[in-house]
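User: Here's a chain of 311 residues. Predict its fold as tokens.
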Amino acid sequence: MRIIATINQKGGVGKTTSVTNLGAALANAGQRVLLIDLDPQTHLTLSYNVEPTSERPSVYDVLTNRTPLVDVVRKVRDNIWMISSHINLAAAELELVSVVGREVILRDALATMDQEYDYVFIDCAPSLGLLTLNALTAATEVFIPLQPHFLALQGVGKLFETVALVRDRLNPALSVTGVLLCMYESGTRLAAEVVEDLRQFLDGARGTEVPWANARIFDTVIRRNIKLAECPSHGQTIFDYEPRSNGARDYARLAEEVLGANELSANDEPVEEASSASQTPPVAAENESDEPAVEPQVTESRTSGVSANLA
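Assistant: Prediction complete.
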């Protein structure tokens, strides 16, 4: 079972969209998937047409009342189960401030599961507070969705630092395994420059003891696609809403890549890296966005210091 925390303290970079649709793609491939909505905004819950209500226990009750997971998990699709969120989760950090072991409550709850899943995805809030800390102590892997813009990259260094602290003090099994590029526009020079800078930073960590030493940028990128923005309002995944869209194709490819990496890992074989640090991911070259790409005005001075910010 792979337990994956999907985190980025910057909002609007594609975390919930990726958990929603990658989970659905893996379920379509026959995998048993558990989704945990650890964001008080409840967007993952709503994306599966589940109404956040206090009448049914949620992840808030797991954290604050130690409600057993068997009373919280619900099946929402074939091969997909969910632990929903609630707006009350926003107050959980204050309620747990004096609780001993508050940072490992979710980990302990997952350890009592009587049902086995192939994948557990934890959708985190756009912050690095107690809720995200619970996700990092429960997970064995971290996926980082990232919009390849200059400002979106600035917080990644802090995020890596947080993962390192959690691994050193609470969860020695934790590692960053992948960075997922979302809302990608292949026609922009800025995207290529940010990706190249990030790739160089990750390559510089190879052979070290940091949690991102084996992290990779997924070959599959998620292109900007209006259908991905529309489907949550219908309580559907992209495969239900528009299975022929670029968004559906991209997440189906990503699921194949994640499954392939899982098989390689099981055989103790290295995951194949991109053949060249200067190459653009292959899906990006298709440039079939549902929205026109707009070339931003970028100067060399805006991207030349990104590696320093990451470090």
